[in-house]
Design a protein that fits this description.
Elements: H1 3-7, E1 10-13, E2 16-19, H2 22-39, H3 49-69, E3 114-116, H4 122-130, E4 140-146, E5 148-149, E6 161-162, H5 164-176, E7 180-181, H6 184-193, E8 200-207, H7 212-218, H8 220-226, E9 230-234, H9 242-254, E10 257-261, H10 276-293, E11 300-302, H11 310-319, E12 323-325, E13 338-340, E14 367-368, H12 376-409
Parallel strand pairs: 4-8, 4-14, 5-6, 7-8, 8-9, 9-10, 11-12
Antiparallel strand pairs: 1-2, 3-13
């Protein structure tokens, strides 16, 4: 194969590389020779093979050049699909709420006295419980009733009494254990919506008609020293003198004695056989007397003799009472946590079971003054245990709230100054 022939086996033109096969070149050369022979009119001298080859290659080169210069349609390429990041989110996988922990219990209560709750809306409860502007979990209230505080030197003659010396020790111990006294409105706000109150609170509740001297002598010093108010379960009997009524009006106006309803007749308790007229005369009769003398409506009813019924509690609610107090010393109070009993206790037959009332706030327990001092540590420990239990379950309860409650109830509020 000649050098010229090999050079044209691979011919480069702009943008293309033409690979020429041996057969195609051979055919092209043969065509050129035949054309040359056909044009000759006279016998030609012996053909010069090299010259013919040169001419044929020149013809082929010219054809190729023209072909290369002609516009060539470039095949349209199908665009390669590009995977772009979509801004449309896929379906959201619903979060599964955790199981809420069981309610707090403690071994410091009597086995028959169990915590009863009263807030039926779980989301409402959790939002109030974990609102940093409200009372912290474990906030506890000790309600103490005082029937008779004896004068110095007098001896005990009844289990409802407390000596003046024991009373002073009780008040000292409460203060040393960081308890602070609150009034009835503060207690109602705490129990209903977990409003902030001191972590260890005490409600000092004096039953029956006491004159001004009684309050000034026994309780006013603590109002002066610690700012401790006292509650008077006032008996609105028409037998009270005008002077005694005026003493109460003056104490109420001074702001440190908070009067609440204790019935009218007092020595006849409400039972299942009580008529609606009698119940109304006791409960509404107290409201009428309060509005006349104190220009206020009582929010708490202290059941005379500690007797109550579910029906009477319902009537009390209809009249606007927010709280009710028994004489049963079941234990302390916490938000949505009231120790009550569902069954009679043979060991404590005088304690009426409250569970069937189905309204814990209308049958709140109270400690008796004569042995309240020995329960202070129990109350303090119950509060601490409840706080620890809440802290251990906080993450679970907040996760549940975020999944189940937040869409409708909004986020847990942030702390405000």
């Amino acid at each position: 194969m000649s050098l010229t022939f090999r050079l044209f086996l691979r011919l480069r033109i702009p943008h293309y590389v033409l690979r020429i096969t041996h057969s195609f070149l051979t055919l092209s050369l043969l065509t050129a020779f035949l054309a040359s022979c056909a044009q000759a009119s006279t016998p030609a001298p012996t053909a010069d093979i090299n010259a013919a080859s040169t001419q044929a290659m020149a013809t082929l080169s010219n054809a190729i050049t023209q072909t290369a210069q002609a516009p060539t349609a470039v095949p349209t390429e199908t665009p390669t699909p590009t995977l772009a990041l979509s801004t449309v989110e896929g379906p959201t996988i619903p979060r599964t709420p955790p199981t809420l922990p069981a309610g707090f219990t403690t071994s410091l209560l009597n086995p028959l006295d169990t915590p009863h709750t009263y807030i039926t809306d779980t989301c409402q409860y959790l939002k109030a419980r974990w609102d940093p502007n409200n009372a912290a979990p474990g906030t506890v209230v000790m309600v103490i009733m005082f029937h008779s505080i004896l004068k110095p030197g007098d001896e005990l003659s009844d289990y409802s009494q407390i000596t003046s010396g024991a009373f002073e020790i009780l008040m000292r111990d409460l203060h040393e254990q960081d308890f602070q006294a609150i009034n009835t409105s503060q207690l109602a706000d705490f129990l209903e919506r977990n409003a902030k109150i001191p972590p260890r609170s005490v409600l000092l509740l004096v039953d029956d008609r006491k004159d001004r001297y009684y309050f000034d002598t026994l309780f006013y010093p603590y109002w002066q020293q610690y700012g401790w108010p006292v509650v008077n379960a006032w008996l609105s009997t028409p037998l009270s003198s005008a002077d005694l009524w005026q003493q109460q009006v003056d104490l109420e106006a001074e702001g440190w004695v908070d009067h609440q309803a204790h019935g009218v007749v007092h020595n006849i308790g409400i039972t299942s056989s009580s008529t609606d007229d009698f119940i109304m005369s006791e409960m509404k009769g107290s409201i009428d007397a309060f509005q006349t003398h104190f220009n206020k409506k009582p929010i708490a009813y202290i059941w005379p003799l500690g007797w109550f019924t579910a029906h009477a509690a319902q009537i009390g609610r209809q009249l606007g009472y927010q709280l009710g107090f028994t004489i049963n010393p079941r234990g302390p109070l916490m938000f949505d946590w009231i120790p009550l009993s569902d069954n009679p206790d043979p060991q404590r037959p005088s304690y009426m079971p409250e569970g069937s009332v189905n309204d814990p706030l209308m049958v709140l327990p109270r400690f008796w003054s004569y042995d309240a001092d020995r329960h202070i540590d129990d109350v303090r420990v119950i509060g601490r245990e409840a706080a620890d239990y809440a802290a251990a379950n906080k993450a679970t309860e907040l996760e549940y709230y975020d999944i189940v409650c937040a869409p409708d109830y909004g986020p847990i509020p942030v702390a405000t100054p």
